[in-house]
Write a structure and sequence with these properties.
mainly alpha; two-stranded antiparallel ribbon; 18 helices; 2 strands; 70% helix
Length: 421
Amino acid sequence: MLPGHNWSWKTAVVLLLATPLLSLAALNGLFHLDSEPHLCSLLAFAFVMHLWIRPGAREICADVAAAAVLLLFYNLAYGNPHSPAGAAFTALTYGGLLGLGSLTVLWIQAQRTNGEERERRRSALAAGLISPVAMILVGFPLKISAVMHPRTFDALLYSFDLRLGFNPSYLVGRVFAGLPPLRLLSSTVYDTLPLVVSFFYPALILQKKRFRVNVILLFSGALLIGSLLYNVCPAAGPFYAFPGTFPGHPPQTGEFPIEGMSIPQAPRNAMPSLHVDLALLIFWNAYVWGLKGRILAGFYLFFTVLATLGLGEHYLVDLVVAVPFSLAMQAAFTTDRSLHDASRRHPLLVGSALTAVWLALLRSGVTLFEHSALWPWIAILLTLTICWSAKRLLDSSPKLNLEPYFPSRRDAWAGLQGRGV
């Protein structure tokens, strides 16, 4: 095939794929980057990826020039970048524009270069695109979730939290109100969590890190399946369900009906908490970066938990259900053993079953939890204990195959024979 024909064919394919994605982004309002800090952090990562492969000064200048052109169009459409959340989030808007410029330059350079240089730019381009594309695909169903589910289960979830004997979300919210720096730190961690997920792809492709899971399928699958679960027990969070009360005036039992609630405009993305799910998966798989990586991942997990509660986005029970769901995802996309291996199959079944049981009980408003504060605590502690035990089982098998793909039974058996097992 002639180079010109190859260029035209690839360009046509890219345009064909880009058109529906850009349309979804427009429908989601994602072009207004001031109101999309998650997307901005993911786009800014593309510039980091470009720097990672050590491009020349001309390419970096091209990134800045492309970002300047995009900034000009952004000014015409929305005015100067100015996030209502403050200067730090406004900086994220500029970072997002710089990332878009980097993606443009990387795509052009991937067409112009050859050999190893082309592969490095393709890898950086893929690393920069995978998370923004996933967010666009997941974001559209969230935008229409209020239409799909006009009534939510917020009252049932909130009443479960109240039966614990205290009000977790409102309590952390009041702590945030008294400690603004803690709120800023936690909300920054919350908004940049998808950016941390993005580091796993270059670690796999560029740094040749060896994971026990397929990291691409793990995080993509968790986002996709978790987004589908939003429709099983749709809820928005206390900030949206009880407007004007968060965090200083928590509704008490008897002040609201235990029934479906009508919450206009708010996305139904509370149950389960995908932020805690992602943070937990990051923590479990950060071992490839050693102790420092685990400490940083633990930092993100801790402040993500605080943010999910203190920002009024979730109930405590949302975080509880995220644990068995994370276990199921970790087991489903483990690659160092067959699904026939009990050490992988049992955690998958346990995580899936616990997730399903929790969702069914919360949807039904089971009266078991109403009789005593002891029962909700028993259910939570039992869930966490079973998940901890199943995760230990998942980690216990020998690391026979650490390649980032699913081995066939024949390959797995050949590997066992080669090791004299």
